[in-house]
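Z., the sequence and structure:
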Amino acid sequence: MKILVSNDDGIFALGIRTLANTLAAAGHDVKVVCPDRERSATGHGLTLHKPIRAEAVTGLFHPSVQAWACSGTPADCVKLAIWALLDEMPDFVVSGINHGSNLGTDVLYSGTVSAAMEGIIEGIPAIALSLASYTAQEFQPAADFAVQLIHQLIQAPLSDGCLLNVNVPAVPASAIAGVAIAHQGVRRYIDVFEKRVDPRGKTYYWLSGEAIEDLESQPPEITAQTPLDVHAIRQNYITVTPLQYNLTDVSRLATLQSLQQLSWHPPASPAPSKTEQATPG
């Protein structure tokens, strides 16, 4: 398979090297196009007001892997790869392995998920892959699962427009409990801005935050059928959550259509002033 690998942690991240090398060792034709530096939490941003540069990189990956470091965002990298750098369309886009989880509402901010989503927008099956720890360095179980998952998707392809968001617990391979097909949970943050003053007396802020996993906000019928990703990962399951870029809330369409107050009524034309009435045509 022809596989395009990207990430948001940058070209020197251990996660992308482990992923690309493992896929290449499994016999896949791997191309890497990723940011030249860390681009975490950039969402689906694109570079519009300055040029995007891409430089070939050698010596970092398996000898069969062709790689570029790109000055743009994760979404830029995938778009540039597909339309400018690669000779052929890839069969899969795989983004990761991210150093840290992408669970619940994290996917809205995640550059890792956005790189994979760019593949879906272009009609290419895609996987976003994350290791659920910011400190662990053992990416091999996640890379091995990527190889297994791609093999299964070759045998049983998913419908167009579906991205698989995969989070792997940061435990030894022998401690992984299994694979859970999971519903996207809710992870809110108590945003904390730490106020500081620089040597010139100017005020600046550092954004930090504490994650709060809301396990009660989903309807009971959903949580009874499938676990939440934020819950399953705690039990050492690999979580696989299908995502889509169409954010339409289908269940609310009929409700909105029934609301008469949403109808459009053109405003009445104001009466002409006395000055306007006296002005000859």
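The first helix runs from residue 14 to 25. The chain has eight helices and eleven strands.

Let me know what you think.
H.
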